[in-house]
Amino acid sequence: MLRSSSFKFVVGAGLVALGAVTLTYVLNGRKRKRTKIIEMMDEFQKPYVHMKDPDRVEELVTQLIKDGKSKLLVVTDFDRTLSRFMDNEGRKVPTCHGVLDIATILPEEYRKKAIATREHYYPLEMSNTLSREEKYQLMTDWWTSAHELLVECNLNRGDIAEMVRDAKVILREHSNIMFEMLEYYGVPLLIFSAGIGDILLEAIKLENLHSYQNVQVISNFMEFNDEDKLVGFKGELIHTYNKHEAAVHHPEYFERHKKRDNIILLGDTLGDLSMVDGMPYTKHTLTIGFLNDHIEQNLEMYKENFDIVLVSDETMDLPIAVLKKIL
């Protein structure tokens, strides 16, 4: 069942548009036919869309369309991928860990230490000179320190919802449409986050996206004692550069969806590309990268690694446009 009229309207409009699409465009003063699928999609013509190899993107999109929805799995990061980087007022939207950094309900000493830790490690995460191996260890150190600091705060489970509301974590524009499309057509959506799962779930709950049966979340989840006090974190640590290990720790999920070997991957860091590395059954993977920060420094590197790079785009419009073709 559709959850809102917005999805029905957008899909309907998309189907009409496909039948009435203009098949010519102007290049160097001359009209030329649009012969490729991605050329006929207006979302690919935006100035913030970058591709090193449009022919490869064309081949991948064509293959995904040919194989259809029964072969598709969507895998997405959360922080600054599903969630926005900037809001409409130019404020940086907090990440899951950032929610804690600014939470007034936590001790001032914690916030000072957490912010200092982030200011040290974040530039290293975004560096284009450090290797993935170097970043792997640095991110392990960062996440471990952040979690240890948090445990010291005696956080109560009931405080999480209030902190997320106060931090105003918002998702990319039209994320709700993507969620609704995928549920309607029975396509699994894996949210794979190096953030904090408890905060992530509260954020999507605020957007009324928490009850979708096709959504699975793999993240760092808090562990509370009988008094609802934080005492640690469950399972293996997940950070931006060890996501390839997920298939080892969650084999049941990937075994259940082993026939869905076509992947659309959404991420905002190079580490997110490893989200599918450990999946044993992948065949075709279309990678879409959101480049939000340090743009000049990282654009060429992102183009080398992601099939499509979206620069300072706070919407889900391009992924939705691709999904419309497939579903």
Automatic annotation (TrEMBL):
<dbReference type="GO" id="GO:0005737">
    <property type="term" value="C:cytoplasm"/>
</dbReference>
<dbReference type="InterPro" id="IPR006434">
    <property type="entry name" value="Pyrimidine_nucleotidase_eu"/>
</dbReference>
<keyword id="KW-0460">Magnesium</keyword>
<feature type="transmembrane region" description="Helical">
    <location>
        <begin position="6"/>
        <end position="27"/>
    </location>
</feature>
<keyword id="KW-0479">Metal-binding</keyword>
<dbReference type="Pfam" id="PF05822">
    <property type="entry name" value="UMPH-1"/>
</dbReference>
<dbReference type="GO" id="GO:0000287">
    <property type="term" value="F:magnesium ion binding"/>
</dbReference>
<keyword id="KW-0472">Membrane</keyword>
<keyword id="KW-0378">Hydrolase</keyword>
<dbReference type="InterPro" id="IPR023214">
    <property type="entry name" value="HAD_sf"/>
</dbReference>
<keyword id="KW-1133">Transmembrane helix</keyword>
<keyword id="KW-0546">Nucleotide metabolism</keyword>
<comment type="similarity">
    <text>Belongs to the pyrimidine 5'-nucleotidase family.</text>
</comment>
<dbReference type="GO" id="GO:0008253">
    <property type="term" value="F:5'-nucleotidase activity"/>
</dbReference>
<keyword id="KW-0963">Cytoplasm</keyword>
<protein>
    <recommendedName>
        <fullName>5'-nucleotidase</fullName>
        <ecNumber>3.1.3.5</ecNumber>
    </recommendedName>
</protein>
<keyword id="KW-0547">Nucleotide-binding</keyword>
<dbReference type="GO" id="GO:0009117">
    <property type="term" value="P:nucleotide metabolic process"/>
</dbReference>
<keyword id="KW-0812">Transmembrane</keyword>
<dbReference type="InterPro" id="IPR036412">
    <property type="entry name" value="HAD-like_sf"/>
</dbReference>
<dbReference type="GO" id="GO:0000166">
    <property type="term" value="F:nucleotide binding"/>
</dbReference>
